[in-house]
Amino acid sequence: MITLIAAVAENNALGKDNQLLWHLPDDFKRFKNLTSGHYIIMGRKTFESFPKPLPNRTHVIVTRQKDYTPEGCIVVNSLTEAVSVCPKDEEVFVIGGGEIYHQAIGLADKIDVTKVHHHFDADTYFPEIDPKLWKVVSEEFHPKDEKHDFDFTFTTYERA
């Protein structure tokens, strides 16, 4: 099963200058809980936005760069190749960035989105989720608080 996982603003913004636009500790916690122990597929820029590889996950990096060999990671040249190196009988997470999400949405079985209830100026966007193709199977609203500057909703979609 292929799952896209992302935190997305109301205007589908993901980030700017290879940085997230918000800090939501509960979203980080959810991301860690869902992806730990799994293969995670990402583009090179997404990988390079981390201070170090994420623990307890197998990193599959899609890049056109030759001789790109970060330690402990699987490096491939296409999304198709990325999917092919992952276990077929396990949930695999696509974690970004924008171009990888656009390529992967047609392959995905599920989308786990944290919808940040705000509009942001960005240079990277998540693809539109077509309600004819996807149905909401769960939603959980979280109001802003002392640790979270914005309201947000965890939403899980499955193919309709």
UniProtKB/TrEMBL annotation:
Catalyzed reactions: (6S)-5,6,7,8-tetrahydrofolate + NADP(+) = 7,8-dihydrofolate + NADPH + H(+)
Function: Key enzyme in folate metabolism. Catalyzes an essential reaction for de novo glycine and purine synthesis, and for DNA precursor synthesis.
Keyword Repeat: no
EC number: 1.5.1.3
Coiled coil: none
Taxonomy of the source species: Bacteria, Pseudomonadati, Bacteroidota, Flavobacteriia, Flavobacteriales
DHFR domain span: 1-159
Gene Ontology terms describing biological process: dihydrofolate metabolic process; folic acid metabolic process; one-carbon metabolic process; tetrahydrofolate biosynthetic process
Pathway where it operates: Cofactor biosynthesis; tetrahydrofolate biosynthesis; 5,6,7,8-tetrahydrofolate from 7,8-dihydrofolate: step 1/1
InterPro entries per the UniProt record, alphabetical: DHFR, DHFR-like_dom_sf, DHFR_dom
Superkingdom of the organism of origin: Bacteria
Identification of the protein by name: Dihydrofolate reductase
Entry GO MF terms: dihydrofolate reductase activity; NADP+ binding
